[in-house]
Design a protein that fits this description.
alpha/beta; Aminopeptidase; two-stranded antiparallel sheet; 5 helices; disordered C terminus; hydrolase
Length: 181
Amino acid sequence: QELEKLGLRDDVDLHVYEVPVEYQTVQRLIPALWKKHSPQLVVHVGVSGMATTVTLEKCGHNVGYKGLDNCRFCPGSQCCVEGGPESIDSIIDMDTVCRRVSALGLDVTVTISKDAGRYLCDFTYYTSLYQSRGRSAFVHVPPLGKPYTAEQLGRALQAIIEEMLDVLEHSEDKINCQHEH
């Protein structure tokens, strides 16, 4: 909500959605949003009670979903996409994003993770990565006030997403150059 107030740079259309903590809704909603907007990038943000930093997740996992969602449902297969790869990495270089955002001197610590937790955050991330061929990102944030304010988190997310877009645009420039030769 704070990011929606702050916005992003002028050339970016920001669409904010609240995704319910429900496996079946995620399986319907994420592909529908990709289809509706055809975005350059989708960045998911989830609150983790265990997080003490703003955490950039490198990948999503397909199997191991045993926890019941808010509707008391759990996928019988315990996976996101039957027959899908075990994990999918974001095409965003999270190490570069983390380094750049940390160098900005915001009063927020940014870290990297390879395990989004095998619950709805990880399930949503994998579903989005699968849908987008890796053009997704996931950021875990701590609960408000533990230790950051809404404004601190909003500014951190703003900086993170702008750096992600920059990294994405530069990696695509390199790819385009390689195809031209």
